[in-house]
Amino acid sequence: MVTIAAMNETTDELTSRTADSARQARPAPGIRRHHRRTGIAGRKAGAKSTGDTGVLVVILGAVFMALLDATVVNVATPTMRTDLHTTGSALQLIVSGYTVSYAALLITGARLGARHGFRTVFLTGLALFTLASAGCGLAPDAGALIGARVVQGLGAGLMVPQIYSLIQLTFEGHARARALSLYAVVIAVAVVVGQVAGGLLVSADLYGTGWRPVFLMNVPVGLALLAAAVRLLPRALPRQAGGLDLPGLVTLTAALLLLVVPLVLGHEQHWPRWTTGCLIAAAPVLGVFVLVERAVARRGGAPLVPGRVLRSPDLVYGAAALFFCMAGYAGFLFCLSQHLQSGLGESATRAGLAFAPLAVGVATGSLTWQKLPARWQLPMIAAACTLAAAGCLGIGLVLRSGGAGGAALPLCQLLWGLGLGYTTSPLLTLALSRIAPADAADAGGVLTTVPQLAQVAGVAAYGSVFLARADHPGPPAATSAAALYATALPVAAGALLGALTLVPLLRRRRHGTRGAAPLGGE
Question: If we measure between CA atoms, which residue out of 203, 219, 85 comes closest to residue 148?
């Protein structure tokens, strides 16, 4: 077996790879100078400091807020429709306008950070997000709310891509792996917290404001993060020279929009012809982007996605496995939430709280995987994909009869969460393990875009399977349960595909090549 062979790697080889990985991925000289000035230089990788903790709190707080806003609004849409006297199409744009603008700007946002400074672009994005959140909460009508949501997504698209670069350039070794683990926890938990927070805020109807606190809560949090970021984020971050690559920006944005817009709006509009046309057109436009990037590189320019970044096996295979994992997570979470609310009649708040075991599993896996020996970490990811598949299948089976699932449901959710935790967090570390600091921004742009596209694709694909089966005649609980079980099968298959994408890296490790460095080495 590949997995068993991969676990027989020698300690000497692991030590050599760890040292090599650390030399390639250590912070740039400007960062080390910043550490000396602030008293955090010269310590071992992984040592704790108040400065590093503050940086981590700021950037993870910002990404939590951005991801929260992708889901928190879903619970508030019925109240919005009544209050704003709007149509279903407008509600779709209120929900999806944020996602579309956010996803389309991620890679470009990463390049802007490299060119103008990660700290500067992060602060700009955070300020824009906070201002747009206030605009959302005070919007007088649906049109103003849609516009504010698009601007809010643009702010998130500027802010979030800087996080990988800030982690890559500020932390080393185990400290970096721990920061990425916490980032993975935030990604998973924000979706669950969004549903619970949205339900609580709308139900509370604070001072008769209805849905508006869903957005207004971002304002004090955003202002506090801004004040902390100005004080704590390092100023001595290196910048990359080079142009913005406008041809690459235009073609990539067009390709992403052709993918994201139909996936976001398609299942709500029953997949009209324009959605199919956009999806078909996305492939050739993406091909044009590749040709444009090669032409820019031949001229000696700065491509939006340099070829050397995409030639990193760890990044390519890690991002592919991450896509399958995040697509299954977002898609099945959507389907399970629909089943709990529409099929079993649970409130949005209770449905959100039902995912607590899932969040516990994700957090446990994300924060403990580094304790395993380095030679086990890559096989562990493949095994964890299988565990996530088993958890999803278990949820489908225990709910198949139309009941509440009893004690077996939280157990299956815990298994699913552990599988995700032992997969997502180490995949992020794996993907960045061979990336030089000079390429941190471009790699970060790719890694922020892949999970976002995966979540959109997962909700569209798996959600369509669920909704098509749930529309069959019969008692709502029974038909919804059957639809959930039918959806669990392709979700589990997708998780297993994620494990299969790692086989080339497992083989490289089995044959003793230097392309598969330990994930969290110093």
Answer: 219
